[in-house]
Amino acid sequence: MARSSAIPMALPPPYTSSGTRGFSIRTNPENFCTTAELLIGPKRTRFLLHTSLLVNQSPYFRAALTGSFLESTNQAIELPDISVEVFELCVNWLYTNNIDPTPFKDGKPAYYTLLHLYIVADRLCFEGLRNAITDLIADLADKTNSVLTPSDTRILYDQIGDEAPLRKLILDLFAFKKTDKLLQMHEDRWHAGFLRDLCVLLKRPCEQSMQRHCLRMWIPESWHATRACDNCRAILPPRAGAVGCDECCLAWCIGCFGDGVGLAGWEDGRGNREDTAQEMDASGRGAEGGDERREFVKVSRKVRKWESCKPWRGSRCTVYHEHKETEACADVFSGR
Ligand SMILES: [Zn+2]
Ligand SMILES: [Zn+2]
Ligand SMILES: [Zn+2]
Q1: In a domain, 162, yes or no
Q2: Which of 72, 114, 125, 267 is the residue whose CA sits 20 to 30 A from 259?
Q3: Higher pLDDT, 142 or 21
Q4: Which stretches make up the BTB domain (predicted)?
C-alpha cells in the first residue's frame, strides 16, 4: 500500500478544556424579577426558582414558562416522579454551575446518584447539566481510580437512552482503564447490553483512540531515536515525517494518523509491575489489602506509573459533550 510520507497540514484540534463553559447569572438584575414555582416529588415539595435561569438552560422550561401552555399562566409546574434530593443537585447546578456536593457514599463516588441526576437532566432538557455530569464522572473515575458497579450499568442501559454520550464515556472508562479483573471477578451481574457494547468497542477501531492524544508532527533523528507506529507496528524511519504524542510518547506513521482511528489502547499492565498493587475496585478506590499489601503500594508509588492518554482527558468535548443548546468548550493548548 502506497502511503504518503508528507507531513499532514491539518493536525487534529488540540486538547479541550474540561467542563461546560460557565455562564454569568449576575449580569442583568432584571433577570431576577420573576420566579417559577415547581412542585417536586410525591410530597409536592415547593421550589421557587428564577424563571430566567430555567428558561436560559432548558428548552423544556422555555416551552413551559413562556409558551401558551397552561403551565405558563399560573407559573407552577408539577413533577411528582422526580426525587427531591436529585432535584436539589439540579438546582445547585443551576445557581452555581457546579454539582455540589459531589455525591459520595462510604468514601466512594455514588455514581448511581449521578446517573439519576442525568436522567432528570435529560427529561428537563438541561444539556449543560448533562455535560457537567459527564465531566464529573470522568474526573471522579480518574481521581478515585474507580468505575461504575454492575448495578450502575443496569441503570445506564435500562433508563438512559442509547444515544446519550454518557454511555460512550462509561464504555471508554472500562475499555481504556485497567478493568479486566474487575469485569471477570465481580460477583454481581453486568448489564448484558453493556458487555456486548464493550466487546465491540475493544474489537473495533474508534476515533477517540486517536483523539485522546496530544499530537504533533515528529521526525525521528536517527534509528536510535525512532519508534514503531503504535497502530501498524511499522518502524518509523529517521528523517521522515511521523506524528507523535507529547504526553505518552506513542507515535504513528502518516498513514495510520490519516485514518484517524485506532483500537482502544487499554492499560494492561505491560512494563509496569506496580500496577498489580493498584488493582481497582468497582466504584471505589484501589482495593485495600492487609498490611503487607499496603507496604507494597507505598513502595511502588515511588516509581512513576506508566499511563496512556485517555479520551476523557484529551478529547472530552469532541467525544462526550453535547452542544446543541450550549456553547462549545474553548480549545486550550496543552503545553505546546
Ligand atoms: Zn498520548
Ligand atoms: Zn502505522
Ligand atoms: Zn464541550
Answers
A1: yes
A2: 267
A3: 142
A4: 34-103
Q: What is the CATH number of the domain that holds 272?
A: 3.30.710.10
The whole domain housing 96 covers 29-204+263-320
Q: If you average pLDDT over every residue of the chain, what do you get?
A: 82
pLDDT reported for residue 4: 44
Structural domain count of the chain: 1
Domain assignment of residue 20, yes or no = no
**Residues for the chain: how many in total?**
336
In a domain? residue 237: no
- Grid cell, residue 261, equals 482511528
Residue 208, C-beta contacts closer than 8 angstroms, at least 6 positions apart: 168, 172, 311, 315, 319
Interval between CA 245 and ligand 3 midpoint (Å)? 22
How many beta carbons lie within 10 A of that of residue 13, not counting itself?
A: 12
Distance 19 CA to ligand 3 centre (A): 6
Which ligand does the CA of 250 lie closest to? Answer: 1
Distance 317 CA to ligand 3 centre (A): 4
Give the pLDDT confidence score for residue 43 in this predicted structure: 97
CB atoms within 5 A of ion ligand 1 belong to 213, 245, 247-248, 309
232-279: pLDDT as tens digits: 999 999 989 899 998 888 999 999 999 999 988 777 666 554 444 455
